[in-house]
Design goal:
2 domains, 4-stranded antiparallel sheet, alpha/beta, binds pyridoxal-5'-phosphate, 7-stranded mixed sheet, 13 strands, globular, about 15% strand, Aspartate Aminotransferase, domain 1, about 40% helix, Aspartate Aminotransferase, domain 2, about 350 residues
Length: about 350
């Protein structure tokens, strides 16, 4: 019988949360609910048949992004979403039985791509308050460690690690690739981009899926040392980015005002939501992203189901006990969320179970 490779057969199935059309407010994927810059849409409307007939040139896009990041084009590889950047790193550095260190709870796709190579996942649990466990990550490094993943700020916690802690990890494992995932950089502003090329094992991943509102276009960035990237390019399909994505990059990056306004509004909505949830007695972790991790304890299931009934999708996080991750939308969307939540929490059977009154 025809059989895929053993590590592939042994991978757990990954199911993306369903795009149920009845759910009209999607707060489960950390997407933008506002969408992209109108300049990107305008550009898309100008594309003609000739442009679509030709294979896209990624190199041009790499120059644009490199210039924006203050890097050389040779230090930038554009990928089909940050997901593809993670996959490339796993395929490039992991042999079967090699080790990859993941701080848990973690973004799911690291495990998916690493498992496919046959590598061993070495989970290092976050501290009790979900902070980055610097000392235990350093201790977990062995001669077989080929990749350490640091997500900063982290998904699903929203917490950012200290720069000195990240540097400590990178410097403690010079023969290990450090995948620093800065998918939520735009909401937080903390980066190690200034260290790129100076630390020979540092790779930084970014995405246009969050603050830029372009998750559907699939654009990610892998920045890393020139010598390493020149090898990684051999693994990467030459036409991995489509022409729509490449044609829109300049407009997306040039409209700084759009991103600044969106980030400012998202942070304001996030802090408003946090204060509302805390006043309902719910624990929230301080977030530097476009989402909040919220502790609902035994109410989690009732809340998820109740929200779904009202057309709102939130993300269950079974890896953080009793927690739900909520993506941040506009102030009006957050108001709808809070009033729906109040309706759920103050149902007689729920409030009596929790000793809550109206
Ligand atoms: C930490 C992190 N990295 C990477 C990604 C993947 O981003 P992309 O849409 O660019 O593949 C996500 C998406 O949610 C994420 O949260």
């Amino acid at each position: 019988m025809l059989k895929p490779r053993k590590p592939v057969c042994e991978m757990p199935e990954y199911h993306s949360p369903l795009c149920d059309p009845v759910l009209d407010l999607r707060l489960d994927m950390n997407e933008s609910t506002v969408g992209c810059s109108p300049r990107v849409l305008e550009k898309l409307r100008t594309l003609d048949a000739k442009t679509l007939a030709l294979y896209p040139s990624r190199e041009q896009g790499e120059s644009i992004v490199a210039n924006f990041l203050g890097l050389n084009p040779s230090e930038v590889l554009l990928t089909n979403g940050a997901d593809e950047a993670i996959d490339l790193l796993c395929r490039a550095y992991l042999d079967p039985e090699d080790e990859i260190i993941l701080v848990t709870p973690a973004f799911t796709m690291y495990e998916v791509f690493a498992s496919a190579t046959g590598a061993r996942i070495v989970p290092v649990a976050a501290e009790e308050d979900l902070a980055f466990p610097t000392a235990r990550v350093v201790q977990a490094v062995t001669p077989r460690t080929r990749i350490i993943v640091i997500t900063n700020p982290n998904n699903p916690t929203g917490l950012a690690a200290e720069r000195t802690d990240i540097l400590k990890v990178i410097e403690s494992a010079p023969n290990t690739a450090v995948l620093l995932d800065e998918a939520y950089f735009d909401f937080c502003g903390k980066t190690l981009l200034d260290k790129l090329g100076k630390l020979p094992n540092l790779f930084i991943v970014r995405t246009f899926s969050k603050a830029y509102g372009l998750a559907g276009l699939r654009v990610g960035v892998l920045a890393g040392p020139e010598g390493q990237l020149s090898i990684l390019r051999r693994l990467c399909p030459p036409f991995n980015l489509n022409v729509f994505a490449l044609e829109c990059l300049r407009e997306a990056l040039d409209d700084r005002q759009f991103i600044q306004d969106y980030v400012k509004q998202t942070i304001a909505s996030r802090e408003w939501l946090r204060s509302q949830l805390e006043s309902l007695g719910l624990k929230c972790w301080p977030s530097e992203t476009n989402f909040l991790l919220v502790q609902f304890g035994p109410l989690k299931k009732i809340v998820l189901q109740g929200m779904n009934k009202h057309g709102i999708a939130l993300r269950d996080r079974p890896d953080c006990e009793g927690c739900i991750r909520i993506s941040i939308g506009t102030k009006a969307e957050m108001e709808r969320l809070v009033s729906t939540l109040q309706g759920i929490l103050y149902q007689p059977q729920v409030s009596s179970a929790q000793g809550r009154g109206k």
